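Protein data sheet
==================
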Amino acid sequence: MKELPSSIAQLNALQNFDLSDCSNLKELPSSIGQLNALQNLDLSFCSNLKELPSSIGQLNALQNLHLLWWSNLKELPSSIGELKALKNLDLSRCSDMKILPSSIGQLNALQNLHLYECSNLKELPSSIGQLNALQNLDLCGCSNLKELPSSIGQLNALQNLDLSGCLNLKELPSSIDQLNALEKLYLSRCSNLKELPSSIGQLNALQKLYLSRCSNVKELLSSIGQLNALQNLNLSDCSTLKELPSSINLLNALHDLNLSRCSNLKELPSSIGQLNALQKINLEGCSNLKELPSSIGQLNALQNLHLWGCSNLKELPSSIGQLNALQKLYLQGCSNLKELPSSIRQLNTLQNLDLWGCSNLKELPSSIDQLNALQKINLRECSNLKELPSSIGQLNALQNLDLSACSNLKELPSSIGQLNVLEMLDLSGCLNLKELPSSVGQLNVLQTLDLSRCLNLKELPSSIGQLNALEEFDLLGCSNLEELPSSIGQLNVLEMLGLSGCLNLKELPSSVG
């Protein structure tokens, strides 16, 4: 369809008009302004439309106007300001549009303004501050936007402001402190933003502040501690951030603190222990972090502690045992961590302990047996781990035990058979493991047993036939395995048996048939 007939104006009852994806449509008739009942007009993906007729301003009932992906739209007619009922205006990915008409400030009913990836938009008109009903302003990906007008502080109803990917934005106006209703402020990927205005502390309603990948932000001002409603603070990939202000302890409502890949962060302030509402802290990839403050043990609400890839972390403070609500402790890739504190036994709510790639960890503390809620232990690639404590058999809730690529592990304790709810045991790549204890047959609910690439494993205990729930049994690449016990025929629910690469295996027991 290349054009609409001017007679379209006769559709007096028309409320919804969807012209999206009419890519051959080159213009709209001026008579469209006579559609007095029209509430919704969708012109998204009309890639050959270059302009709106000025008569568009006559659509007194229009509430929703969608102009997504108008790659040829350079400007809006000034008459757009006459749309007194307009609530939603979506101009996402109108990549050729450089300015908005000042008349846009007359849209008294406008609640949502989407300018997502309007990559040539260089500025907003000062009249934007007149949008008294505006709740959501989306400027994500406006990579040529250099500044916001000071009038933005007049947006008394604004709840969400998204400036993510505004690569040329260097600063925020101090008037931002007047946004009394602002709940969410997204500044991710504002790579030229160097600091936040001190006035930001006056945003009393702010709940979420995202600064991820703001690579030039070197510090946070102490005024950030005044954000009494802040629940989520995301500083991930702020690679030049060296420290946090001690005033962070004043963030009484903070639930989630993301500092992942802040590679220059060397320490946390001791005041962090005063964050009584904090449930999750992510320090993944903080490669210069050498220690945690002992005050971390005061975080009574903390449920998740992520320390993935903290390669300079050598030890955990003994106070970690005071984290009464901790459910998940991720230490994956902490290659300099040599031991866990014995106080870890006090973590009564811990469900998941991830130690994957802790290549300097030589042993687990015997006190690990007191982790009554522990469901999963990941010890994959703990290449210096030589043995497990016999007390591991007392982990009554353990369902998943991953010991894959523990190349120095020579044996399992006989107590392993006491793990009554263990469903998965992964021993793949345990190159020095020569045998399994006969007690392994007591694992009544074990569903998966992976012994692939256990190159020194020569035989299996006959008790393996007692694994009544075993569904997957992988012996791939066990090149020294000479025979299978006849009891393997008792595995009535076995669905997968992997024997590829078992070069010394000469025959299968008759019981298999």
